[in-house]
Each structure stands twice: as structure tokens, then as C-alpha cells.
Amino acid sequence: MVFERANKWNGLKRPFNSVFTKLFAVILISGTLLVLGITVIGWHGLKENRQNFFRNNLAQYGMYLVRDLEENLNLEHALELSQRLFFIIRFEGENISWQTAPGIPPLEKVHFREWTDKSADPFLLINKSNPDSFVNVRFGRYQKQGVVTVDTIHGRFIFAEKHDDWGEISFFLPWIIAVLGLIGLILTGTWLALRWIMKPVSWLSDGVSALGEGDLEFRLPEKRGDELGNLARAFNRMSESLREMLNAREQLLLDVSHELRSPLTRMKVGLEFITANSYQESLQSDVQEMEQMVTEILETARLKSEYGKIDLQPTDLVLLIEKACLMFEGKAPGIRFENYAEKCAALVDVEQIQTVLKNILANALKYSAPESDPIKVRLSRDDSGIQLEIQDYGQGIPDEEMDLIFEPFYRVDKSRNKKTGGYGLGLSLCKTIIEAHGGTISVKSSMGQGAIFLLLLPNSSSTI
Fold it and tell me: Which residue ranges in the chain fall short of pLDDT 70?
């Protein structure tokens, strides 16, 4: 069965389908919700007392500030306080008025909030010893700018926040950068930690793809001691077991096939001394079928062996295909060779390619009805290589069996009907031969519409 090896960049192409990304997103969302939950609970917990807390502390601080300004009622001292406290200070008295900087809004536009409970006025509570020192205190806002007015016996003090957005940003900018840097550092550390934890999953994906392609020598790293490391070790044991079972199966086939050759030879010799009749012809057909099966098994094993080599010779594929088609001349529904070039030179093993053509053409005829359209053979060449298409209009191949027809001993006809012949070794041998030439073989089919076998051979610089 053919599997496509997993692309190492799949995580980049489809990041939201990655288990690693999903885990990272879950941790990120969970952490965010946890922080928000704690913040909301804390905010509601302080909601009842925070207003009085800030108001009383602000009032206490304002009282000291006003007293300090009354004791040093001059612009120089106010300027020093303004620069230090980020306030704009204005004083309006009977004889003098001054302001540390422009920016105080018109008081008639400020939305002031009066104290609803005069007995709870923090300034009055703090200054009970001299209740006449503070006549009126008002808090308000204008376009997000806080304003406080304090009327005293000496005059009116007006405090306003400096309406300088860049100044506020520049004040908090180092803290913002520090917080963002810390968040980035935490996220990066989380990302790297998850990547390290989930690394065996990526190894396992590569291993499954390699195993599906038939690479039974592929092994996963066994560096981890956790559950994922145990999974990698289990995969390696499974791969080793599969390799041993397949090797044992192939060796058994080779041994049996090799041992069958001698009795088959004796049977062929013995059949020559039997009087020719239908019984003798049937036996000869069976012996020839067994001999072909043994030959195909041994040839497949030879080509897969590191010592099995093909004999490449400069060959005109046009002539080779024409000879193969002539072998089936007169058999319905017939074969039509559609060639668009007089010659097509390539380096191939003539006998092996003849075997491929013979097996595929025989299958096409076998599964085609006599009244169907003739089988079409097309030969073409381009920069990608030499393409050979063999199309029939027979019964077709079921979708679920498309990846299995090149497996040894697999047949679409489960009944093993002798009329369809073979033991499921022909297409497996074709695949082995084409791959030994550095090419590929594939099939496209729809039930009731036939099948198209596509053979792709590499280009060569040989000439004839």
C-alpha cells in the first residue's frame, strides 16, 4: 500500500490542525481566563470599599497639599509642586491669581459631583478642629481630565491633571514594555516547552509515513522516558516485528519456489512421454502456470536484492511496444497503439520491460469484454520523462482496492477463477521492474469504465 510521506512543513501550512498548536492555544486561553477571573473577583471584592478608600486618601493628601500651598502662597513653590506631582495648579484670591501652566478647562464645562452625604465629606472629617477652613470641595471631570476645586478662606485652589497623553504614555512606556517583554518571554518559553514535549509525535508521524512506504528500517529516537518515549519504543518494536515477519515470509516463498523447480522440471519431462490428449494438455497448462509463478517470485526477489541488477541497453520503445502488441494479435477486443513519434530511445532492460508490457496487456484483455472498445496504448515524452499509458474499457477496479493491486498475491477477483488466471504476482512484478528502472507505475480507474495504467520512465541521453 502506498502512503504519501508526511511533509515536515505541514505544521506551517495548516497550523490550526496541529495538536501542538491546539495545546498551546488551550494553555494560552486557560491562562487568560484564569487571570481575568482572578481580576474580576478581586475587583468585585474591593468594589464596596475602594471608593471610600481612594476618596479618603485623596482627601488626606489634598488637605496637606492645600495647607502647604497656603503656607507658601507663591507661584515658584506651586511650580515646583506641579512638576513633581504632574498637576496643573491655579489659585484665585482676592488680590492675586496665578497658574502653573495652561490647560485647566473652563469650570462651567466641568461635570462636578457633589457629596451626597455631607457628614461623610473627607475634608470635613479630617478638619473637624477647624471646620471653617474648607468651605467647599468638588470633584469633576472634563474630557477624561480630572479637576478638583477647593474653596478656602484664602481663595480657590484648582487642581487639574496635565492633559498630556504623550507624557502619560512616556511615563508608563517602560512599564508597558517590561510587561509585554515578560508576556513574550513566558509565551516563548511555553511554546518551546510544548514543542519539546510534543517532539515524539512528529517523530511518530514520520515513522508511520516511512513504514507505510515500506521503509521497515526506520527507527524513532528513544531519548525520552515519559509516555511518548514509551510509544516510540513500542513503535520500534512493532517495526522490527513487521520486518522480521515479512523477511520470513519472503524467505519462505523463495525456499518453496526454489524447491519447486526440480519437481516441475521432472513433471514436464514426464508429460512428454504421455500420449497427447486433453488430460495431458490440462496438466501441461497447470505445470506452465506453476512454473511462471515460481519464476515471477524469484525474479521479484532478485530485483529487490542489493545484488539484483537490470541489464540496461539503448532500446527503441516504439519497436518494443509494437512487438508486445503483436503477441496478442487476434484477441478481442484488440489493441490500438497510438504513437506520436517514430522513435523513442531509452536505456531499459528489454526482457524486463517486455514482461511488464505482457502482464499489463494480458490483464487489460482479461478484464475487458470482447465487444468493448479496443485497448489503447499511448507513448509520449516530455521533460518529466517517458510516459506510457495503457487504457482499457473493462470492468474497472473498486476504489478501496486501488492501493492493493500491486501487492503480491492480491487479486481483485476473490474467487480465484481459473479463467482470469494468475496468482496476483504479475502487477507486483511490474511495479518492482519499473522501480528498478528508476520509474513509477500508477493506476486510475472507475467501476464500469475501465482502468488506465500509467508508466513513467526517466529520460536518458542514449541514442540508437
Answer: 1-20, 42-60, 114-135, 163-172, 249-250, 252-259, 298, 301-302, 304-308, 340-341, 409, 411-424, 461-464
DSSP string, 214-275: T-TT--------SHHHHHHHHHHHHHHHHHHHHHHHHHHHHHHHHHHHHHHHHHHHHHHTSP
Integer distance in angstroms from the first to the last C-alpha of the chain?
A: 37
CA atoms of 17 and 38, how far apart (whole Å) = 31
Within a 10 A sphere around the Cβ of 273, how many other Cβ atoms? 7
- Report the length, in residues, of the chain: 464
8-state DSSP, 5: P
Q: How many CB atoms within 10 Å of residue 186?
A: 12
CA distance 320 to 326: 10
Q: Quick one: pLDDT at residue 44?
A: 65
pLDDT for residue 340: 63
Q: Coil, helix or strand for 276?
A: coil
What integer pLDDT is reported at residue 254 of this predicted model? 66
In sequence order, which residues have a C-beta less than 8 Å from that of residue 439 and are 6 or more positions away? 385, 455, 456, 457, 458
Can you tell me which residue has the cell 502662597? 73
Question: Distance between CA atoms of 124 and 43, rounded to whole angstroms?
Answer: 29
Query: For the chain, which domains are there?
Result: 21-163 (no CATH), 227-304 (1.10.287.130), 313-457 (3.30.565.10)
Collect all residues with Cβ–Cβ distance below 8 Å to 148 and sequence separation of at least 6: 62, 137, 138, 139, 140, 158, 159, 160
Does the N-terminal peptide bond of residue 408 adopt cis geometry, omega within 30 degrees of 0? Answer: no
d(CA 379, CA 346): 12
pLDDT for 129? 44
Round to whole Å and give the CA distance between 443 and 258.
32
